[in-house]
Amino acid sequence: MKLVKSLLLGSAAGFAAVAGAQAADLPMTKAAPVDYVRICSVHGAGFFYIPGSDTCIKIGGRVRAEFQYQEPLNTFQNGPLTAMPGRNRLGTGRYRDATGFRGRAQLDVDARTSSEWGTVRAFFRFQLTRDSGVYRPQAAYTAEGFTVAGNQGSTTTSNLDKAFIQFAGFTAGVAQSFFDFYAESLNWGTANGFIPGSDNGATQLLAYTATFGSGFSATIAIEDRNQRNVTTVGYGWNPAGQRMPDVVGVLRVDQGWGSAQLSGAVHQLNTGTLNHWGGRIDDEYGYAVQAGVKINLPMLAAGDQLCLQAAYADGALSYLGVTGSPVVGEYTGYLPMTDAVRYHDTIKRTKGWNILGAFLHYWTPSLRSTLWGSYTAIDYSGPVAAGGYFRDAKVYQVASALIWSPVKAMDIGVEVLYAKYDTKRTWATPVGLVGSEDQWQGRIRFQRDF
User: Fold this and answer.
1) Domains along the chain?
2) 23 CB-near residues (< 8 Å, 6+ apart)
């Protein structure tokens, strides 16, 4: 027994020695170092270093789902629809959608690198939107009858909402216009063709911002003129090619109490229309000025704020929030908007002004409400109404929303909006077009930010 035990132990020792000798002859390999993702706190929460780089990146976005009801605009106060040849009274309001759905996905990517010139930043925001019903262009009236444009299923659109580089005070690319201040911060819906103040969130620009300390800054920018054009066919200003971008200047202050801004813009009205002698009509230059203030109200509740803003424009209606020719009543051309009107051999600029107020209040940390209102007035000077086609207009809007956040970065809310269009009737205004029209809208929104 002792002999067997000795043989087994000896064999095991022999095998161990041989194995050790063979292992010593094998090449030694060293595991590659692991490059772990590191938090980058220098640029704020949510940033992390790109592995193998000194650039910090933050990825975010949102998903939004909405349902909207919009009262069809179909009241004719100044004459029956049948008063106009070829119109069918039975079609009043029935060719427009009253409800609709929207789904939107948004991706934000923010990359920043520290340098001796300061932070080098690249940012882009991409959106995909699927719309149906009232979110699509609505049915319009033509000389041949109603054209159904909005009630044909759903459409999916893509949008490069932001794509800019910031370096040493410069901003270049697609960004929010520097003229804008309130920029629809609290409202969801708007009246057709009118938003409460300028909000050109995806304009191409080149700007330089100088900072002076204590929150004061000044910006000079050149921005895409063609994205600011408001015009219509016929007697309206017919824009030619862009010869001069819009020039925007801004003075701004951001401090603990809130922020304030004074903005100005110059807008070229460069027309390709010829005069009666076959020559070119001279260019005109429109302009706009705006002042706004946002006041933090922590004495009421954390997060409360009050926004006040006013703007005046002469030949530059986009800076008032006028986005085009809204469909009011049953006619696409009921309330055409244009920066200027061709009158004989001159361009007559359109004037207008806008005021707004918006209030945000937190009832609890998870329940808040908004209340906002705006007034916009458009003035076409004297005889340039061109046979009643263009008319002075006043647009009133007021709305309120109640929003519940059951978890962080998750909103469930409802907004109700009332809008009224009021136009000045001229002797040449066609029979059957109303002098005023009002509308109710309602929205339900689910939104998750990440």
Assistant:
1) 56-449 (2.40.160.10)
2) none
Rg (CA), the chain: 31
Confidence at 427, pLDDT banded by 50, 70, 90: very low
| 208: pLDDT strictly greater than 70 | yes
Q: Three-state DSSP class for 18?
A: helix
- C-alpha 115/C-alpha 102 separation (Å) is 42
- Of 398, 382, 317, give the one whose Cα is nearest residue 343: 382
State the pLDDT confidence band at 326, using cuts at 50, 70 and 90: low
Which stretches of 26-156 are DSSP H helices? Answer: none
The per-residue pLDDT for range 65-93, each reduced to its tens digit, is 999 998 876 544 333 333 343 344 434 45
Sign of CA dihedral 341, 424, 429, 87: positive
Among all chains, which residue has been given the structure tokens 């939104």?
447
What tokens does 105 get? 């996905």
Query: For 263, how many CA atoms within 13 A lie in the half-sphere containing its CB?
Result: 27
Angle at the Cα of 384 from the Cα atoms of 194 and 354, rounded to 5 degrees: 30
d(CA 385, CA 380): 6
Residue 363 DSSP one-character state: E
| pLDDT(127) > 90 | yes
DSSP secondary structure code for residue 78 in this structure: S
Are 235 and 386 within 8 A, CB to CB?
A: yes
> Is the pLDDT score of 351 beyond 90?
yes
Strands 393-404 and 410-423: antiparallel
Beta 170-175 vs 284-296: how paired, if at all?
Answer: unpaired
DSSP string, 178-223: TT-SSTTSS----BTTB-SS----SEEEEEEEEEEETTEEEEEEEE
Q: Which of 67, 129, 126 is nearest to 98 (CA)?
A: 67
For residue range 386-416, what is the model confidence (pLDDT) as tens digits? 455 677 889 999 999 999 999 999 999 999 9
What's this model's pTM, rounded to 2 decimal places? Answer: 0.83
